[in-house]
Design brief:
Blueprint (H helix, E strand, L loop, with lengths): L10 H8 L11 H17 L3 H14 L7 H8 L32 H53 L13 H11 L5 H13 L3 H19 L1 E2 L4 E2 L3 H7 L13
Helix pairs in contact: 5-8, 6-7
InterPro entries: DUF4187 (IPR025239), G_patch_dom (IPR000467), GPATCH11 (IPR039249)
Family: Belongs to the GPATCH11 family.
Pfam family, one: DUF4187
Length: about 260
């Protein structure tokens, strides 16, 4: 074999093949690889997102009027339809296509409506809870004022009745609970303490707002008609005419400006 002819089995031939890699699709040179990446980024930035492209195509289609050559449009014209007018007998009908609400995401149909309904119900519950709290607070405050006024009237009635040497009140609730129970024990020695406790429990059970308001009204009338006394004016008159001359009325609301 001559020197000019290369041995295809020699290492020299393999070394020459390694000098340049010409395999398609592969870039091993750093500068070429960097240029290729920059080119890919440039092309990618020039492309519009798929969603934007779909929106543009949809809007373009909605803004484009149906051609008069359209078969469906010709059929409408035969039925009396004119471009720019509404369908039906009413002239106030819709003249523009109904807008398409595009659903984004993969939550499923009705998911947004379900969330809005839950949010609405939660808001209603919060509002009702706040209203109930305010109503309960007002109710407790009114009940507290009733008990306070009733106790004040009972103490005044006790004092005035004792001065007139009365042994028992005209009505049980005209005197304080403690005083009435003590007198009951003395008058009825045969009854044991359990029965007295039962009586006390019964009085406690009856202390509702309506019952207290009725008891207070009866007691205020008693003090006014028998002793010419008003717990809100904190004054006793010589007679009913004298009381009416300076007392605005029987109830707390009549004295709101003075209390």
């Amino acid at each position: 074999m001559s020197d000019s002819e290369e041995d295809y089995m020699s290492d020299k031939l393999l070394q020459n093949c390694e000098k340049e890699d010409i395999r398609p699709g592969l870039i091993f040179n750093r500068s070429k690889k960097r240029d290729h990446e920059l080119y890919k980024k440039t092309v990618s930035s020039q492309k519009k997102p798929k969603l934007d492209t779909e929106n543009e195509i949809r809007e373009q289609g909605l803004q484009t009027a149906i051609s008069s050559e359209n078969k469906g449009f010709k059929l409408l014209e035969k039925m009396g339809y004119k471009a720019g007018t509404s369908l039906g007998k009413s002239e106030k009908g819709v003249t523009q296509p109904i807008r398409i609400e595009v659903k984004l995401g993969n939550k499923g149909l009705g998911h947004k409506t379900l969330l809005e309904e839950r949010k609405r119900k939660k808001t209603e519950v919060n509002i009702n809870t706040e209203r109930n709290f305010k109503a309960s607070k007002i109710e407790k405050n009114e009940l507290h004022i009733l008990k306070k006024d009733l106790y004040k009237a009972q103490k005044a009635c006790e004092d005035l009745d004792f001065r007139n040497e009365k042994q028992l009140p005209d009505k049980n609730f005209f005197w304080t609970k403690h005083t009435f129970l003590e007198l009951t024990k003395k008058k009825k020695k045969e009854e044991d303490e359990d029965s007295s406790e039962e009586d006390e429990d019964e009085v406690e059970e009856e202390e509702t707002k309506e019952v207290l308001a009725e008891q207070l009204h009866d007691l205020l009338e008693y003090l006014r008609n028998n002793y010419f006394y008003c717990i809100y004016c904190v004054a006793r008159a010589t007679d009913i005419e004298d009381l009416n001359s300076f007392c605005p009325g029987i109830s707390r609301t009549d004295h709101d400006d003075d209390i």
